[in-house]
Amino acid sequence: FGLMLYDPAFKNTASCRSAITLIDGDKGILRYRGYPIEQLAEQSTFLEVAYLLLWGELPNESELAEWSDQITNHTYVHQYLIRGMEGFKWDAHAMGKMVSLLGTLSTFYEDSKQVRDASVRREHIIKIIAKMPTIAAWCFRHMQGRPYIYPDNELGYVGNFMNMLFRMAEPSYKPNPVIARALDVLFILHADHEQNCSASAARAVGSAETDPYCSLAAASAALYGPLHGGANEAVLRMLREIGNVGNIPGFIEGVKNRERRLMGFGHRVYKNYDPRARIIKGLAHEVFAVTGKNPLLDIALELEKIALDDDFFVSRKLYPNVDFYSGLIYQSIGFPVEFFPVLFAIPRAVGWLAQWQEMLSDAEQKIARPRQIYVGADKRDYVPMSERG
Ligand code: CMC
């Protein structure tokens, strides 16, 4: 096989050079374009972070105003997309709908196929970031059998999203500022995470010069899985199943006997506490001050305490990841578990687009095409049906 290396799941293979996100897994460090995640979560906003990830630098005042204005002006989606939505059963999983509708959007924008044109790319990057909350909110309303609420372009990115989700009959609905800020911070924390499964999917599909909508549909499909972004939903289901603190020791024994995994724990790169989980844990208390404490919090805290003191988890360097505490916040805000991965996908679209754009701008990148080590049968002759046993 010449120089070919065997590296299942690409554990030790760098597939690209990237200047977007840095993770130091041993130290538990995460930086976007050099800026520590803690500083961005504390001082920035999601749209500013989106600009930073995509264009490399923090925007100045007028750049940010123009960027926010451009996003705000593309929040509406074509009416025909609603027909696609209506084709789903009312209880269809929200993430299944997102995957399909993102792919459907590609059919509305034939020009998005000109992926080598930077100005076309920019136009569709803006459209996607702007439309993700609208499609997501409509998936939510569809699940509930409630009428769709159209975007209100007077509101900010998260305020508009909350309005489309939660406004009922009264036109005076105002998003709670603590909840709105918490969602904005969660969006910042989820915006990018270098070459994870879904970003790699976006890059791989995009490397065939597929349009960004289909590339992101592929990325969302990857994110949907319970080992990736679907873990936030799986954590909540797990906490509910455990039910009370007294059942934790038996549950942990089951994990150690490899009957199941402790969802929201472990990471391919972090061999230390995930810095995002630390911020989210603190954020949860701010949200619970408004919504009331989530009764599942005590189970999560006790699980973490036991796991961080148990040799099975310590020796394997398994720590809480971003998905361990986020679901508790989402549930307290009023989201059903089936919607949690969508809340991950909205901000991660920015990371996927940044990775996709970087890949297309990199002269060293070609169509993604891993090799294999063939272990199948040697050459043999076709056997007619009458001679088969
Ligand atoms: N519970 C119990 N054991 C675990 C867990 C867990 N959550 N995660 C890893 N292990 C064990 C695993 O059994 C293996 O043990 P051994 O070497 O004795 O066979 C060892 O730790 C290494 O695990 P691995 O599966 O080789 O590690 P990986 O890098 O391939 O997988 C992971 C990373 C995130 C898929 C895995 O830790 C996992 O399944 N975690 C639970 C799901 C989850 O929370 N996913 C969200 C990840 S972070 C956000 C995101 O990506 O979306």
Task: Show the helix and strand layout.
Blueprint: E1 21-24, E2 29-32, E3 35-36, H1 37-43, H2 46-55, H3 61-72, H4 79-86, H5 94-105, H6 118-144, H7 157-166, H8 177-190, H9 197-206, H10 212-224, H11 231-242, H12 248-256, H13 275-291, H14 297-307, H15 311-315, H16 323-333, H17 340-361
Antiparallel strand pairs: 1-2, 2-3
The site of carboxymethyl coenzyme *A has 19 residues, from loops.
Any overview of this molecule?
The structure is a single chain. This protein is an all-alpha fold and 389 residues long. The protein is built from 17 helices and 3 strands. The chain has helices at residues 37-43, 46-55, 61-72, 79-86, 94-105, 118-144, 157-166, 177-190, 197-206, 212-224, 231-242, 248-256, 275-291, 297-307, 311-315, 323-333, 340-361, and strands at residues 21-24, 29-32, 35-36. A 3-stranded antiparallel beta sheet has the order 1-2-3. Helix 2 (46-55) packs parallel to helix 17 (340-361), helix 8 (177-190) packs across helix 17 (340-361) and helix 9 (197-206) packs across helix 17 (340-361). It is globular, with a radius of gyration of 22 Å. The model has no long low-confidence stretch (mean pLDDT 96). The site of carboxymethyl coenzyme *A (CMC) has 19 residues, from loops.
